[in-house]
Amino acid sequence: MLRELRAAVDRRARLRWLHLLLGAALLMPFQLLTTSAVGVTGLADGDFRLETQLLAFALALPLVAAAGLLPVARSLEGAIARTLCGASEEVLATPADSWSARRRTSLWFTLHALLGGLTGAISLAAPPAGALLLLLPVLRPHTVGPGWAAPIAEHPWTAPPLGLALLALPVALAFPAGRRLARLAPRLLGPTPADRLAAAQRRADRMAERNRVARELHDSVGHALSAVGVQAAAAARLLRTDPDFAATALAAIEATARDAVTELDHVLGLLREEDDRTAPHTLADLPALLDRTRAAGAPVDYAEDGLRARTLPGTLSREAYRIVQEGLGNALKHAGDAPVHVRLTVRQETLEITMANPLRPPAGRRTRTGSGLTGLRERVALLRGTLDAGPDDAGQWLLTARLPLGSSA
């Protein structure tokens, strides 16, 4: 019992009482409108009689419900409920986009105005009346004029208990009303199934964007670092015995690092959601990539069939470049200076990318140390293509990607 009394007057209860009074303030314009309408139409006599105000109050609630259907109503009521009512974080302070959310907000707005109007009226009327009843025993009966207190003045000993009851009435009403509204807030102002679906779609979009940026970083910067490491090791090994090759490797390191910085600017532009100032690489940039790989010490045999006769969509050309880049990076990382065979073929509305290189003995298999193949599979899947990667019967690592020419959509 003592705990309930403390809860009824603690800070949260006071904020909820203020929340109810704010509901009364939101009701006031509608109440004034219906009061004027009742007076003009003659539905009741006198603007300030109790029956007039009750009728105007009843007529104002449908107007409140109609106003609650506005999308902005959830923004207003959600922010107020989270600040004053102590509602959970599930309460949304965003415009209601669907009719289901609007109907829920309308019901909440009506309840807020209804309970707020009752609480506000009692909070204004009950304390003065309670104070008068507490003072009634010390007042002379003839000082109390005709009205509601006149019958009580004839029995002054009943006035103090009634006065205390009137003083406690606002708390007795505001505490359960505020607690009930706080419990209803997540249900009426929280996300609807459509809101939850939209939130899940936004999360999926963010995850897809993060995966895309991760693939870009891995395929571009990761490839560049792998190539730089191999080139630097080759240059250090042959610096004394073959200065010309070492100079070529150092020049390739410079070109690779410069290209990596450009790629990094492109990816950072994606993260900042800026207009990309650096055009991403396409198959037109493939010769430079092959030259840098050759400079790292890995012989690259390149061939193409039917590629020049077709104009590839931009998206497909960019993704094909990334696939070749990742394949060359894996070859440098796992096979060193082993020769790499790259072939691009266009046939039957399909771009086929085939890459093969010998496996390094004695392992006979690739070591799975990164996420390159996973990123390649995701990239190819987005283009509705297929990817096969693994050792073949001839002891080579074979990577084959097949991309539909219409997959850029």
How do you describe this structure in short?
The chain is 64% helix and 9% strand. A five-stranded mixed beta sheet has the order 1-2-3-5-4, with helices on one face.
Report on the architecture of this protein.
The protein has 409 residues and is α+β, with helices and mostly antiparallel strands. The protein has two domains: 2-191, no CATH class; 199-404, Heat Shock Protein 90 (2-Layer Sandwich), CATH 3.30.565. Helix content is 64%, strand content 9%. It is built from twelve helices and five strands. A five-stranded mixed β-sheet has the order 1-2-3-5-4, with helices on one face. Strand 1, helix 11 and strand 2 form a beta-alpha-beta unit. Helix 2 (11-41) packs across helix 3 (50-67), helix 4 crosses helix 7 (159-189) and helix 8 packs across helix 12 (372-382). The longest helix has 46 residues, at 193-238. The chain is elongated, with a radius of gyration of 39 Å. It starts with a helix and ends in a 5-residue tail after the last strand. Mean pLDDT is 80; it is low at 362-369.
